[in-house]
Amino acid sequence: MSVEVKVPPVGDSISEVVIGEWHKKLGEAVAADEAVVALESEKSSFDVPAPAAGYLARILKQPGETAAVGEVIAVLEESAVAAATGPVSEAPPVVERKPAGSTPSVSTAAPGGSAMAAVAAEPRIMPAAARLLAETNIPPQAVQPTGPGGRMLKEDVQRAASAKVASETSGRPAAPSLPAAPATVRVSTGRAVHRRPMNQIRRTIAKNLVEAQHNAALLTTFNECDMSAVMALRKQHQEAFQERHGVKLGIMSFFVKAAVDALQAFPAINAQIQGHDIVYHDYCDIGIAIGGGKGLVVPVLRNAEQMTFAQIEQTIGEFSKRAQSGQLLPDELKGGTFTISNGGVYGSLLSTPIVNPPQSGVLGMHAIQDRPVVREGQIVIRPMMYLALTYDHRIVDGREAVSFLKRIKDCVENPVRLMLEV
């Protein structure tokens, strides 16, 4: 029986996705709930599991193509399960979808053979590797796959091609020596470039950043923060904190707590413009900008005002881990009333972050650097961090923005205030 593989619902605001990598080849056996294909939405990438066990009979969408939510992108045949347990007289033909103008390829299992065994004998070849095989005329049997699950990667084909060229060169007779020719200069007619399409996440990032610049009146204010108290507190309690909660006490939890305190004191920065209205949020959903494997993502700490230091650190750690592998859920990336971006992890000393629309503010953290400062008439060395607040000047006045950033500075420099909520 045929079973359709459809694009699952992703989120209220997402109507289409881009096909990523097919984890299974045509004819390959698939277990129930096993990942079949990776999809990319505007905010994340995720795998689609097989709705039933069988084999992949048809692929209707190729990598890079767009598919709507609910659209059928592949077809499974459940009959492959029976083929694995006994011989079959004839397996259904497998037709692979090709670009317009090309001839479909049809493969039929030999009578009395196993359809699954026939396809299992071939290596799983990634699309990039398949293209390179066609260009170099190297048979798949001459390539040693090194990818996960026995997949053949582009790099495997490149190594095989290099070995082939080396063997052909070593077997040729030496060319007769000729008189030295006059030196010549090769003039290049142009420099090489390569073009690569943006993935769905990168296109969304580009669209949102341009939208923020065009639709909001953005302004940035700066301050600097003495990190001495936070660093001393972390050093004093790090071991006990980690032993009790299973996670290190970082600096992000202090800034999240400080942001919550400041947002509650200055609600305009926790608000958004909708039409001719200003919508004030009585909760703090704080987005944490994270550099993921495919670009910047901003998962959201829901109701951050209710979270403890340990809960904040644990949640951010889990977000970071899953962001690298593209496993963040769409709902974790939706919404948000304010954002914190830490460019300091990459060494940034000062920057002007861009607001994540339709939010009205973003806090930029930066690298901690020992600098001379004056304290009580004495020049001392302190670990300092520059802070930046970019805000939408349409609803946030300069006085509010400066006071907001000053309050964050005061909270971080006096972390006991955060714990006592004073």
From TrEMBL:
Its cofactor is (R)-lipoate. Residues 173-183 have a biased composition (Low complexity). GO terms for cellular component: cytosol; oxoglutarate dehydrogenase complex. The lineage of its organism: Bacteria, Pseudomonadati, Planctomycetota, Planctomycetia, Planctomycetales. One of its GO terms (biological process) is L-lysine catabolic process to acetyl-CoA via saccharopine. Binds 1 lipoyl cofactor covalently. E2 component of the 2-oxoglutarate dehydrogenase (OGDH) complex which catalyzes the second step in the conversion of 2-oxoglutarate to succinyl-CoA and CO(2). This is Dihydrolipoyllysine-residue succinyltransferase component of 2-oxoglutarate dehydrogenase complex. CDD domains: lipoyl_domain. InterPro entries: 2-oxoA_DH_lipoyl-BS, 2-oxoacid_dehydrogenase, 2-oxoacid_DH_actylTfrase, Biotin_lipoyl, CAT-like_dom_sf, E3-bd_dom_sf, PSBD, Single_hybrid_motif. Residues 2-77 form the Lipoyl-binding domain. Pfam families: 2-oxoacid_dh, Biotin_lipoyl, E3_binding. Residues 85-112, 158-191 are annotated as: Disordered. One of its GO terms (molecular function) is dihydrolipoyllysine-residue succinyltransferase activity. Pathway: Amino-acid degradation; L-lysine degradation via saccharopine pathway; glutaryl-CoA from L-lysine: step 6/6. The gene is odhB. Gene3D superfamilies: 2.40.50.100, Chloramphenicol acetyltransferase-like domain, E3-binding domain. Its EC number is 2.3.1.61.
